[in-house]
Design a protein that fits this description.
- With 103 residues, this protein is mainly beta.
- It is 7% helix and 13% strand.
- It has one helix at 66-72, and strands spanning 24-28, 35-39, 46-48.
- The chain has a three-stranded antiparallel beta sheet with strand order 1-2-3, with no helix packed on it.
- Strand 1 and strand 2 form a beta hairpin.
- The termini are far apart.
């Protein structure tokens, strides 16, 4: 799973993908040039010295794992309220007397 950027008439700008990747450890100093990125991806122990715009092992830190989502999910169960849908209307019972017939 990688992120691809399409650039027209220019260069890619912005932050490095390593800044938001779960596989990276980023150590920054006060100056922009004082930045060390240690990648724990497939090549364990790789030091990255340039801003990365494309990586096939990129995994965003903000994405939550499926197991974690299952742990925090609510279990919703319907309440029993009787029959659902259309109600069958029975024809009138001829053995019962109507109140109007007495008049």
């Amino acid at each position: 799973m990688g992120i691809h950027f399409k650039v027209h008439n220019g260069t890619v700008g912005g932050d490095s993908l390593c800044d938001s990747c779960i596989n990276s450890q980023v150590v920054e100093g006060f100056s922009h040039s004082h930045k060390v990125i240690y990648c724990n991806g497939p090549i364990n122990g790789l030091y990255v010295t340039w801003p990365v715009c494309k990586c096939n092992e990129y995994k965003a830190r903000e994405t939550t794992a499926l197991k974690k989502m299952e742990e925090i999910a609510w279990i919703v169960q319907p309440r029993k309220r009787g029959a659902v849908g259309f109600v069958q209307i029975l024809p009138p019972d001829p053995t019962k007397k109507k109140e109007d017939d007495d008049l």
